[in-house]
Design brief:
The structure holds two protein chains of two kinds. Chain A is α/β, with parallel strands linked by helices. Chain A has one domain: 3-Layer(aba) Sandwich (Rossmann fold), CATH 3.40.50. Chain A contains eleven helices and eleven strands. The longest helix of chain A is centred in the last third of the chain and has 18 residues. The two termini of chain A are 35 Å apart. By secondary structure, chain B is of the alpha/beta class. Chain B has one domain: Rossmann fold, CATH 3.40.50.300. The longest helix of chain B has 16 residues. Classes of the chains: A alpha/beta, B alpha/beta. At the A-B interface, helix 8, strand 11, helix 10 and helix 11 of A face strand 1 and helix 2 of B.
Chain lengths: 281, 234
C-alpha cells in the first residue's frame, strides 16, 4: 500500500541493551533469556527491534507494563541514552536522510534543541528545580539560539500563561510549585522552541485526578492548535484512549501489537494486550 | 468499482486467551451497497450485527474475506488491508459511525464536540460554528446545554448529540448501530428527517435498527441475521 503522507519521525529497528551480552543471549533464538534478562551474563535487553512512524499532528500512544522498555525508548529518542543499534529519521532534518543516532553530539544537541521537546515523568529530570520558571524556559530558548532577553521574557510569559501558570509567579522556582504546576512548567519549556515533535513520558502519572485532567486538556489543545506530533507513553489506558489515535503495545522490550486505539481496546489480539484491556474494563 | 461498498465472505472470530476459546461472531457475509443506498440489518442481539459494522469501521480486524470501499481519496480500497493512517483519514472525511453510546472527550462541551467534527474535515471556524448551531437546533437540544459537558446530559440528549455529531459531517458512508434504540418518538422522527436529508445528499447507509418498521419505508433492502449468518434478505 503506498503511503499518502510522510512521517515526521521514523524509527527503524531500534535496539538498546544494558550489558555486554554473551554467546547465549546473542543467539537469534536465545534460550537463556528470562523475559528480557539474560540469566547467564545479566544483560537486559530493554528495547528489541522497535520500529514505528509518527505522522504530522497525530498522537501515538505507547502502553505497556513497568519495565517493558517504554521509558528507555523515549530516552533513546531524546539522546538521553546511547542506542545499541537502530535508525531514526526526522523529515524536517536533512530531508529525512540522515540517521539521527549516527550524528555528532553537536548535531544531536541541535536536534534536541530545535526539533524536539520532552516532558519527563519526574519534573526533576526535565527542570532546574532551583531556577526561576521563566529561567527554565529561557534556558531552552538560549540553547536554541535566542539571545534577545526581551523576546525571551515575552515568549516565556506567553507560554506560562498558556499552561495556566499565573504570570506573576513566573520568577518563582518550580520547587515552590505543586507537582501539577511543575509538570506544566515542563510542558511550557518543552514547547518553547515550537518543536514539531513532543515526547511525553508518563506525564500524568502520580498527579491527582483534577490536575491530571488539566494537564491532559492542555496536551489535547496543544495538539489541536499547534498540530504538534506527540509520542505519548503511559501505562494508563484511560489516558491513551482519550488522546492517542494509534497505539503500540510493548512487552519485554518488544512491540507486540499495534493498531488504531479503538482496535487495541476493543479487539486486542495478544494475550498480554487482552489482559491489559480487561484490567481497564 | 460499481458500488460504494462490497463485502465479500466476511468472517470474524475472537480468540479469548484467558478462556482458551475462539468465538465466531460472523461468517461468510456478503453485502453490496450502492451510492445513496439504505440497507438495514435486523436480528436478535448477539447475532453479529454490530460486528459487521465494526469491521467496516476498522475497530475490529478482519480475518477472512474482504471489505472493498470505493474511497474518494484512495480509490477502491480493501479495508482489511488499509493502513491505520488511511482508516484515520476515512473516519475523519468519509465514513461515519453512530452507536447508541456516546463516547465523548471529558470536559468538552456539546458545541465543541460537534464543531471539532466539522473542523477536522478542514472547514473554517466560522462555517463550523454556524453548522454546529444549525444541527444542535434541529435536534432541539436546549441552547442552555450547548456550552455544558455532555457527561451531565440525559440519555436521550446524549444520543441526539451523538447523532448530530456524526450526521453533520455528511459522510459518504454512514454506519448506524441502533442509533434510535432508546429515543422517544419525536426524536426518532428527527433522526428520520436527517437520514432522509442525507440520503438525498448521496450518503449511503448501513444500519442496524431494532424497530425496522419505523425505518421500513426508507430501506432499499434488508438482511436478517441469525448466529452470524444472513438467513434471508429482501
Amino acid at each position: 500500500m503506498t503511503e499518502f503522507e510522510v512521517p515526521v519521525l521514523s524509527i527503524k529497528n531500534l535496539n538498546k541493551q544494558f550489558g555486554p551480552g554473551c554467546d547465549h543471549c546473542r543467539n537469534p533464538e536465545p534460550l537463556t533469556l528470562i523475559k528480557n534478562y539474560c540469566s547467564v551474563c545479566g544483560t537486559v535487553y530493554a528495547c528489541r527491534d522497535v520500529s514505528f512512524d509518527v505522522y504530522p499532528g497525530e498522537v501515538l500512544g505507547i502502553v505497556g507494563e513497568s519495565g517493558s522498555g517504554k521509558s528507555t525508548l523515549m530516552q533513546c529518542l531524546y539522546f538521553d541514552q546511547e542506542t545499541t543499534s537502530g535508525e531514526a529519521y526526522i523529515s524536517s532534518y536533512q530531508n529525512g536522510l540522515n540517521n539521527l543516532f549516527e550524528e555528532s553530539s553537536q548535531q544531536k544537541r541541535y536536534i534536541r534543541n530545535h526539533l524536539m521537546g520532552k516532558v519527563y515523568q519526574n519534573p526533576l529530570s526535565g527542570l532546574r528545580i532551583d531556577f526561576s520558571s521563566i529561567g527554565n524556559i529561557a534556558e531552552k530558548l538560549i540553547a536554541a539560539g535566542s539571545r534577545n532577553v526581551g523576546m525571551m521574557e515575552d515568549r516565556g510569559s506567553e507560554l506560562l500563561s498558556k499552561v495556566n501558570i499565573p504570570v506573576h509567579r513566573r520568577k518563582e522556582a518550580p520547587k515552590n510549585f505543586s507537582g501539577g504546576m511543575q509538570q506544566r512548567v515542563q510542558i511550557a519549556k518543552a514547547l518553547s522552541n515550537q518543536p514539531p515533535i513532543l515526547l511525553l513520558d508518563e506525564v500524568t502519572t502520580g498527579l491527582d485526578l483534577s490536575v491530571q485532567a488539566s494537564v491532559l486538556d492542555l496536551i489535547k489543545s496543544l495538539q489541536r492548535e499547534m498540530n504538534i506530533s506527540i509520542v505519548l507513553v503511559s501505562h494508563d489506558l484511560g489516558v491513551i484512549r482519550m488522546l492517542a489515535d494509534r497505539t503500540l503495545v510493548m512487552l519485554e522490550g518488544q512491540v507486540i501489537e499495534q493498531g488504531l486505539t479503538d482496535q487495541i481496546l476493543e479487539d486486542p489480539q495478544a494475550p498480554f494486550t487482552q489482559s491489559l484491556v480487561h484490567s481497564l474494563l | 468499482m460499481e458500488n460504494l461498498l462490497e463485502i465479500r465472505e466476511l468472517s470474524k472470530s475472537f480468540t479469548l486467551h484467558n478462556l482458551g476459546k475462539n468465538v465466531h461472531a460472523v461468517s461468510g457475509i456478503d453485502i453490496r451497497l450502492g451510492e445513496g443506498d439504505f440497507v438495514g440489518i435486523t436480528g436478535k442481539s448477539g447475532s453479529g450485527k454490530s460486528t459487521i459494522l465494526k469491521c467496516i469501521f476498522g475497530t475490529y480486524r478482519l480475518q477472512q474475506g474482504s471489505i472493498w470501499y470505493n474511497s474518494k481519496k484512495f480509490g477502491p480500497l480493501n479495508i482489511a488491508e488499509a493502513t491505520n493512517r488511511q482508516m484515520i483519514y476515512l473516519r475523519k472525511h468519509e465514513i461515519g459511525y453512530v452507536s447508541q453510546f456516546l463516547t465523548v472527550m471529558p470536559r468538552t462541551t456539546a458545541r465543541q464536540l460537534v464543531k471539532q467534527a466539522i473542523v477536522e474535515m478542514g472547514r473554517d471556524q466560522v462555517h463550523a460554528e454556524k453548522e454546529t448551531e444549525q444541527i444542535l437546533s434541529h435536534f432541539e437540544l436546549d441552547p442552555e446545554l450547548w456550552d455544558s459537558y455532555p457527561a451531565t446530559f440525559s440519555g436521550g440528549e446524549k444520543l441526539r448529540l451523538n447523532i448530530a455529531r456524526a450526521m453533520v459531517k455528511k459522510p459518504r458512508l454512514l454506519l448506524l448501530d441502533e442509533p434510535t434504540a432508546s429515543l422517544d418518538y419525536e426524536s426518532k422522527i428527527k433522526v428520520k428527517i436527517l437520514i432522509e436529508q442525507l440520503m438525498h445528499g448521496g450518503t449511503s447507509m448501513l444500519g442496524i435498527f431494532h424497530d425496522l418498521e419505523f425505518m421500513n419505508n426508507l430501506c432499499d433492502r434488508e438482511y436478517n441475521m441469525q448466529n452470524g449468518v444472513f438467513t434471508l434478505s429482501h
